[in-house]
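pasting Response regulator protein for the record, 226 residues
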Amino acid sequence: MTIRILLIDDHTLFRSGVRALLQRQPDFEVVDDAADGLEGFKRAKQHRPDVVLLDLNMPGLSGIETLQLLQQDLPDTAVIMLTVSEDVDELTCALREGACGYLLKNMEADALATMIRRAAEGESVIAESMTQRLITQMRTPVRAEAMAEATPAAAPSGPRDAPALTSREHDIVRILSRGASNKDIARELDLAESTVKIHVRNVLRKLNLSSRVQIAIHAISRDLND
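structre below
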């Protein structure tokens, strides 16, 4: 399957560089790019890409405003914020507005390609360092209360009659609360990474959650972490 990608970023050199890197991937097609949010939104409506890589801070229409437009008109398109900002408030705002990912521009090209593939499959993709920052702030009671009011992703709750987690799924939740990747979890529990992915999907379904970050916050809010 070919993953069709649109880039929206006001830095021409960065946009050109990312485009060149992504075009080396045999399963990627960069359908277009744009230097500002409004033009990016127009081109997204034209091309209807699978994934949009969207800068956060741009002149004119901001990344968040562009994200809101994309969510209204192209809800099936996965939008990944690709930014230099390591501000947790901007991360939570992006998640609240419907972004499926939040990645940092200093990441490796191969890692970016992997994250794009995961996003195209419907997964949430968030830089591990940002997940850890979010978890750290959630462990501060005052901060946790403020974030719970600010975003649905910070105060997830499943139905009371949700299926109970197995002991292995509890282990997965506990380790996820540290911001661990699937590879880290697989190593710690001596499991195949594919098995970990299945467990994570089952946890999301049972807890009626939609992302790994929500699992981590669920664990912290219920004192399920280490």
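The CA atoms of residues 166 and 203 lie 9 Å apart.
The chain has two domains: 3-126, 151-221.
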